Amino acid sequence: MSSLHHRPGINYPDKFIYMIKTTRLFTVLPMVFAMSMPTWSAQHKPVQSPLLAGAESTTPANMKHDMNAVGELAKKLQAMNTVSANFSQSTIDKSGRPKVEKGSMQLKRPNQFRWNITSPFNQEIIAKGGKLWMLDPDFKQVVIKKQNNQSGPTAVQLLSGDASEFLTEYAVTRMNYGPEVVYTLRPHKASDLFEMLEIHFSRNEISAISIVDSLGGKRRVDFTQVDLNQPVDGKLFEPDVKTLEKAGFDIIDESGV
Description:
Blueprint: H1 14-33, H2 67-78, E1 82-92, E2 98-108, E3 112-119, E4 123-128, E5 131-136, E6 141-146, H3 154-160, H4 163-167, E7 170-177, E8 180-187, E9 196-202, E10 205-212, E11 218-228, H5 241-246, E12 250-253
Parallel strand pairs: 6-12
Antiparallel strand pairs: 1-2, 1-11, 2-3, 3-4, 4-5, 5-6, 7-8, 8-9, 9-10, 10-11
């Protein structure tokens, strides 16, 4: 197991060391997985969509479901066979302090993705073939889990999974804001993932995803340098676990796959 900074004269049990090493990994995951897409940046000035205008108080019961919007959104999402982009993921914690994470992402249908955080720390989340790898280079650790319908950013599910099937669970509406089109999704039933999610397109190119979670938190991810339907190297979705292990990484396989 990789070394940690110990206080002199104290022998920490292996279980305690493991808990320390996994703390950052699993405190970061809710940011990525329940949207996991990201929150407001204090410097970001998005269009005045329902999310900004206070529409989070609207309930599914009084929200009109637009079947045309559902079909249109499903068509746009399904047309994205591969996506490469940079992202800036923003959140505001309970104390009101903003937190911003930046990195790059690649997606490929069906259900393959790589979410690579490069700032303010390094971390990768990769999925393919029913497995999901969480790599933490700083702690030299890889945690492997089974990939399922809930084990990925909501944005990833939308962009790499079956959008038509996913959208059956939500009431969908559409609004135009100049060159930007915003689709708003609300679950038909109470959801632990989110109360409202918005998918933003600018000139028919996906530009942002924002979310209000079940606790009222707001998150947003903005995409730049978006590249659609271009060849993506399949090796991005195949972490070389043996090489990582030789490099001193701890491999924790909880996938059962």
